[in-house]
Amino acid sequence: MTNRPNLSRGRGYLAIPGPSVMPEAVLQAMHRAAPNIYEGEVVEMMPSIIHDLKRVARTEHYATIYIGNGHAAWEAALSNVVAPGDCVLVPVTGRFGHGFGDVATGLGADVQVLDFGKSSPMDLEVIAQALAEDKDHRIKAVLAVHVDTSSSVLNDIKGVRDVLDAAGHPALLMVDCIASLGCDRFEMDAWGVDVMITASQKGLMVPPGICFVFFNARAQAVREAMPRVSRYWDWTPRSKATEFWQYFNGTGPTHHIYGLRAALDMINDEGIEQVWARHTVLARAIWAACDAWGEGGDLRMNITDPAFRSTAVTALRLKGNDGTLLRDWTERELGVTLGIGLGMAEPDDPARNAFFRLGHMGHVNGQMIMGLLGSMQAGLSSLGIPHGRGALEAAAEVIAGH
User: Is 250 left (phi over 0), alpha (psi -120 to 50) or beta?
Assistant: First the structure.
């Protein structure tokens, strides 16, 4: 009797929607002794980092860095423009829209939620109606999520700005781009976004630990009218920093800065338009495979209309426990980790085992995506999960014809 070989040996593939795969260049840049934080290389690179962050965000305005995750970025942004008692409108298309609104609630805001479910984009007509009913302009900000990582929906941010302008409403447009920046097309200035937040661990390809708040002059005017903002969250001194410590209100995240510099260099070398195009082709390959699997089985993409699918993450479902079974199989047998179905069912609801997600953001290329899809194909076959044929061929045709 021969031992069954373990095919998961070798480098694993983390195909979850963040933290994303970290490039070797980023890891190598971070693998160093602690630097001097008062002079030298890490101090001198800060102006170029701020400049290049704004290039990725497509803004000519302000960029600030905080030590923290995406939740910290929510609180940092809101703390600068929303005071207790202020009203905010939150169109929700998944778990993270609720999270953005919940942070506003924690700061004492009056939060009005427009819940569009877990499988649909924002309805701009409903948002327009809510703004029209706000005769006294109590709504101070609209909190929108560009890509909700839980549902994988891509929302029309330019459309929200158009609705605000058509209504003549002065509310700030605040956008969560944690899942989308550096993956899906985003144009901060061209789309009229006043405040945008993101974090390091997805399209920016750096380990979790730093987050970013971008804002324009309209948002700064609101900040200046605030009765108070805590010293730590206040974006004004960070945006005007002349000393290294001022960028971070204290000691900087030195090794993250080295990693971020390497990641921004990679984005600059490729070009942001090409980054977006690469994500689009690879996402289309995944969708083609999923369509083929679904033809003869139960696999379904959460977002049916391709126009509203993110090119960074795809939320999927099977039946029964098959989502969890497939995730367990690909990780155990092949070393490929698929994402859990976050927020699609309650933690104690057995239905959650049907859902899973694929992260295809940041440092991904064609052979990685074909390997991911091949691993899923092997898992579906090994587990006897019904599925259609020709998925890998469909994906390959997309990549071959791009």
Answer: left
Bridge partners, residue 199, by sequence: 211
What is the spatial distance between Cα 79 and Cα 7, in angstroms, rounded to a whole number? 49
Helices within 82-120 (DSSP H only): 95-106
CA nearest to 262, candidates 32, 41, 26:
26
CA angle 91, 352, 72 (to 5 degrees): 45
Q: Is 17 contained in some domain?
A: no
Same domain for 114 and 65? yes
Residue 4 domain-assigned (yes or no)? no
Q: How many CB atoms lie within 10 A of CB 264?
A: 22
Q: What CA–CA distances, in Å, run from 212 to 47, 102, 137, 199, 377? A: 15, 19, 28, 6, 38
For 362, the domain range is 271-400
278/362 Cα distance (integer angstroms):
10
Q: What is the pLDDT along the chain (402 residues), one digit of tens a residue?
A: 467 888 888 899 999 999 999 999 999 999 999 999 999 999 999 999 999 999 999 999 999 999 999 999 999 999 999 999 999 999 999 999 999 999 999 999 999 999 999 999 999 999 999 999 999 999 999 999 999 999 999 999 999 999 999 999 999 999 999 999 999 999 999 999 999 999 999 999 999 999 999 999 999 999 999 999 999 999 999 999 999 999 999 999 999 999 999 999 999 999 999 999 999 999 999 999 999 999 989 999 999 999 999 999 999 999 999 999 999 999 999 999 999 999 888 888 889 999 999 999 999 999 999 999 999 999 999 999 999 999 999 999 999 988
| Coil, helix or strand at residue 91 | strand
